[in-house]
């Protein structure tokens, strides 16, 4: 993905250098991007699970970095979260979106703003036909983001909601 830009935000795609800095040395990441990196970026689940997996994938194929990245709040020059697709499209053209915004910046429409841009970008890729998502039933903010970007609920388990949006 070319770095996505919205009214208030910019997404910077992951590469090996950025992932290593986000895991090991936030000061280096801040210098590389010329932004502030808050203490709660990346969140623990992203740092402990998502980024190590992303690093392994990038080592095998650097092009997977275009499917996810970091969200920069442009006017504040601060990293406020991460967003992307959990992998490149599968054989059917499905991608699953995920996102994480630091607490201080939640509730201001940033996840919705960037998710709309990311989904639009995905549907301009020739091999993407469907965007999916899942979230906890109890995660009202995430439910609202998915509703606002126009995703439709597919199914529900006791604790999870499953969503989709098809290419128009």
């Amino acid at each position: 993905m070319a770095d996505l830009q919205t009214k208030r935000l910019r997404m910077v795609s992951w590469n090996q250098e950025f992932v290593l800095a986000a895991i090991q040395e936030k000061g280096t990441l801040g210098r590389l991007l010329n932004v502030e990196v808050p203490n709660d970026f990346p969140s623990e689940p992203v740092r402990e699970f998502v980024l190590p997996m992303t690093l392994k994938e990038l080592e095998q194929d650097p092009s997977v970095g275009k499917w996810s990245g970091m969200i920069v709040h442009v006017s504040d020059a601060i990293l406020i979260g991460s967003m992307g697709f959990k992998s490149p499209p599968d054989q059917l053209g499905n991608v699953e979106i995920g996102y994480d915004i630091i607490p201080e910046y939640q509730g201001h429409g940033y996840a919705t703003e960037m998710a709309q841009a990311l989904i639009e970008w995905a549907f301009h890729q020739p091999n993407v036909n469907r965007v999916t998502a899942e979230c906890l039933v109890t995660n009202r903010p995430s439910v609202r983001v998915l509703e606002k970007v126009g995703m439709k609920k597919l199914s529900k388990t006791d604790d999870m909601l499953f969503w989709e949006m098809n290419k128009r």
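The two ends are 20 Å apart (CA to CA). The CA atoms of residues 13 and 69 lie 4 Å apart.
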